[in-house]
Input
Amino acid sequence: MSEIGSEVLVIGGGAAGMSAALPASARAKVTVVDDNPLLGGQIWRAELGKIRSPEAKLLIESLEAGKITVINNAHVFGPDSYGRLLAESPDGTIQLKYEKLVLATGARERFLPFPGWTLPNILGAGGLQAMVKGGLSIENKRVVVAGTGPLLFAVADYLKAKGAIVVCIAEQAPAATIRRFALGLWRYPTKITQGTAMRIRLRDVPYLTNSWITGCIKSSGSSNAITATISRRGKTVSLDCDYVACGFHLVPSTELASVLGCRIEKGVVVVNEYQQTSVANIYCAGEPTGIGGIEASLVEGKIAGLSATGQTDAAREHFAERDKTRRFGKALNSAFALRAELKRLAGPDTIICRCEDVEYGRLTEFPSSREAKLQTRCGMGPCQGRICGAATEFLFGWEPGTVRPPIFPVKMENL
Amino acid sequence: MSFDVAIVGGGLVGAACAASLSERGQKVVVIESTGIASGTTAAGMGHIVVMDDSEAQFALTRYSQMLWDRLSPELPKLAEFENCGTIWVASDDEEMDEVRRKSAFYAERGISCEILDECSLRAAEPNLRQGLAGGLLVEGDSVVYQLFATRFLIEKAKRNGAELIVGKKALEIGANAVTLSDGTRVLCGRVVNAAGAAAAELSPGLNISKRKGHLVITERYPNFARHQLVELGYLKSAHGSATDSVAFNVQPRSTGQVLLGSSRQFGAEDGEIDHEILRRMTARAFDYMPALRDLSVVRVWTGFRPATPDNLPYIGRLPEHDNIFIAAGHEGLGITTSLGTGELIADAMLGCEPAIPIEPYSPARKVAEH
Ligand SMILES: Cc1cc2nc3c(=O)[nH]c(=O)nc-3n(C[C@H](O)[C@H](O)[C@H](O)COP(=O)(O)OP(=O)(O)OC[C@H]3O[C@@H](n4cnc5c(N)ncnc54)[C@H](O)[C@@H]3O)c2cc1C
Ligand SMILES: Cc1cc2nc3c(=O)[nH]c(=O)nc-3n(C[C@H](O)[C@H](O)[C@H](O)COP(=O)(O)OP(=O)(O)OC[C@H]3O[C@@H](n4cnc5c(N)ncnc54)[C@H](O)[C@@H]3O)c2cc1C
Output
């Protein structure tokens, strides 16, 4: 077991983590830990070893030029009894000592169960994108992109650029809400530019609003082809495709904050204006404080990095910008709020917890996730409810269960 | 509304009492402050095991095991009842002597068991390391998913008319009523205190302390282990002393997961994971079963065994209180001994001849000590 000490320890090498590390390194010994082979996080994750975004390149180069220690391929799985964090790496466990901690652990997709969702080739939208980034060929494959949120656009755009035939984008939100949200974007010029460019590239892809996936079955004939049914303005439409990429917006990854005792309310880590959590020496930036997109992650990261190293005046200079990104986040989350009809997609036999094969029908009688877990094993598997937890929260209104270490599966010898 | 019996505590012990009493026609209510099977029962390992610490412990574990076997055809698949047997693993010649003693003890009392030499031990459990001396296979022991079993017993009691009050704490046990946290009084002819580690809060004469334990569960590795495996040093290290201890204890779940125990700590009040003892526990396990190192762990948790000074539970009438019965203090064996406890309580309450003598577990034995 090796030990690494830092004044400021940053967990997460995405936009938020990197932008926290940079200003902090002017004053302190900084370490960034990320579980991926390369920095960049969810959005800038390297594609076949190459970083594309110029902005990300700049950040990564500055990080590498600075006095910042970067530890890749290390999964932080929880605290030990001595106030250190433990990370599993290919070389065993690393004990991470810190004075100040910045949590920049990002978000993951929410997946909602519907009949047939466990068939092969039905994937999370971000998941399919990651597989293509990792080398899966999508050329000439028909893909239905369904769910909600701007991520659907980003994924469709990406898949199309890689040669996929995007059959349609099925967006559950009503057209009027989306129009209102889009009109509000004039306050965020970069979003408009990105959005417009994407819209132009996707002009021949049908963007169906008020539409959501209601089920999938295997098509007769060729092996993995799927027939997806979409409810569109009250009518049912059947679509043939090779892949379904689904994502119902994002859920903040708050497990690490939770095991460290930081207060969490309504699914997000509570922070003050300096991005400080309820635990005095722990800061949090980016998606865990509320889904807000890349700009929010960048500016929150900066504030967290500055505040953690006592540069509070400099931190204050970014408050206005941060507040603006927060307003954007709010508008985003309310525009893509999930409609009640989605709660009724699952049938009694639809699997909710994939790790433990627990069907919807067995869960309806329980008042809480804890009782359901103890009596049906829902959420007890390797993912520990990371996937089904966001679904059961929406479907049944259950609070997520207590998070216990390890927050990721870890080899026993590395505990 | 009035009941024949109010049972305080909806752990496995309380549930077993409810099932036994309601089966014999008693109108029962179970009062549970937090949730059915949410206390120590939620934390335990689910090993149904015959023990030979003392004659009294043997009698209760053996009797209970027979009751489990009788119940097992009724248990739904989700209760994961599996008759996997136990292998007591001996690491050296001294422990092999213990194997022979144990084997003789069991054989005399009609428990089928088999002495394994080094070779047959390895054949039975290929993931054990080479060079262990041997072991004792006790075939009748089983494993159960006790949370589901608790629920099953509660449902059974409900079919016999039992009622549940969940979410209210019992504050006081009186001669003919239990007072709840919201001020209501549940009127009843008799009370069973089955509040586990909290039983002494309601019946102050009892001597029950908390013995903390850690458990580790892995992803699925079917056939990694086939029997419950316990090191023979277990008794020496676990029950023998008042200091913290760890022992090699591995359980194959019917899901294919591997459940690893166990540690024993006195005086630890909070449920946090103690990494020092956890590492001692895993190191001990690697010593017996090196391949455990590479298994992927999904969760670690702790629980508190309700321990008594002589390692026997309190079962029976509280002295000087005709209407109050105790069913608590089952330490690390309460999953096994729950069913026997339920029957003994029903016998004592209804004046029936018990299947085994109940005196060794009398709450009077400790109360008298004070
Ligand atoms: C699947 C998916 C796809 C997305 N695609 C797009 C897109 O195409 N376009 C877009 O504008 N936005 C996209 N987003 C939104 C995007 O995540 C954010 O806008 C941006 O990446 C937020 O940056 P961040 O630093 O807050 O989080 P992230 O970029 O998610 O960075 C967090 C980093 O921390 C690491 N990490 C988390 N926990 C631990 C731990 N315990 N130990 C070690 N490392 C840890 C993560 O692996 C990750 O590398 C996507 C989000 C998701 C979930
Ligand atoms: C790590 C570990 C491993 C174990 N392994 C095994 C094993 O392999 N085999 C085995 O046989 N045993 C095992 N045990 C022991 C077993 O789990 C316990 O002995 C058994 O669960 C005790 O059950 P109980 O019903 O007495 O207590 P509990 O399950 O704690 O039930 C008591 C209930 O009473 C409730 N309560 C408390 N106070 C009040 C009140 N005032 N009002 C209302 N309700 C109240 C609580 O909420 C609780 O639900 C293990 C224990 C631990 C900790």
In short: The mean pLDDT of chain A is 91.
